[in-house]
Amino acid sequence: MSTTRPYPPGDLGPESGGAGASAAVPAAAAPAGQIRRLRLAGTRGAVARARDFARQALHDWGWLPAANADQRAAAEDVLLVVSELVTNACLHAEGPEELRLRCASKVLRLEVSDLGAGSPAPRSPHRPGRPGGHGMFIVQRLCLDWGVVRNADGAGKTVWAELAAPS
Hints:
This protein is of the alpha+beta class. 28% of the residues lie in helices and 22% in strands.
């Protein structure tokens, strides 16, 4: 697991102005600083719903439709990581509670909150030929950084991942 950042979800660190950002701003505004939230507790089809929600946010923020192959790959990576994080919460953590997308100028942060006790980690050693067990390995490979922060009240956690914004 990579937890190189000393600050919790919601605090993008000193470069972004910290956790001062609040609810999503209108789509016409610049995407930096926007936060989108999707409540997933008790939702059927949570993975598909989360992907659709993320796809719409990427469209609103101008990442889609992609102007070139690099931008298309960046958007596809975001959708894949959303799928993997939400799937992991569905399979191993009693289901996801909420998906948050935070768009900064150079980084997109994905956060999936759940009530599970475990902490995700890539399987080691990774065995590419075996079915299943690749989700966190994919997250680790595609993301700039990722980690887990336990909820202060002890019930659950937030798994976060950061991807580079397309150039």
